[in-house]
Automatic annotation (TrEMBL):
Lineage of source species: Bacteria, Bacillati, Actinomycetota, Actinomycetes, Micrococcales
Name of the featured protein: Histidine triad (HIT) family protein
Active-site annotation: 100
Record-level Gene Ontology MF annotations: catalytic activity
Top-level taxon in the UniProt lineage: Bacteria
Location of the motif Histidine triad motif: 98-102
Length: 114
């Protein structure tokens, strides 16, 4: 079996990070290295999907739950408008292969694109 991802370890309380919101199947944290005034991560609790393509194919309703929690935290932590980014593949900047959505809001710059 593969090693648990950093996000699974956060969810399990092995690595400290405040869970700022959650639903039955999804949770949200602040990014440790923010690239925008508001930079949150919305993550399925299961680590079985490596990226958004696998998630969309395997469990579309879980993807919808990710988008729904992104909307909720964007309303709570920003003015409700946000950019939703799923880096997909190392060549696109993905470093954690446990699917997660970046919620970017506030004054966005080119750096916000990662
Ligand atoms: P990716 O590069 O895979 O799209 O995004 C992974 C994100 O996870 C990065 O933006 C990185 O800053 C964030 N990250 C990595 N390790 C930790 C951590 O231990 N805690 C938190 N809160 N974020 C992390």
């Amino acid at each position: 079996m593969s090693e648990p991802s950093i996000f699974t370890r956060i969810l399990d309380g092995e690595i400290p990070s405040e869970i700022i919101a959650e639903t039955e199947n999804v949770f949200a944290i602040r990014d440790i290295a923010p690239k925008a005034p508001v930079h949150l991560l919305v993550i399925p609790k299961t680590g079985e999907y490596r990226n958004v393509v696998e998630l969309a194919a395997g469990d579309p309703s879980l993807l919808a739950e990710v988008v729904g929690l992104a909307n909720t935290v964007a309303a709570e932590h920003a003015d409700g408008d946000f950019r939703l980014v799923f880096n997909t593949g190392a060549g696109a900047g993905q470093t954690v292969f446990h699917v997660h959505a970046h919620v970017l809001a506030g004054e966005l710059t080119e750096a916000s694109l990662g």
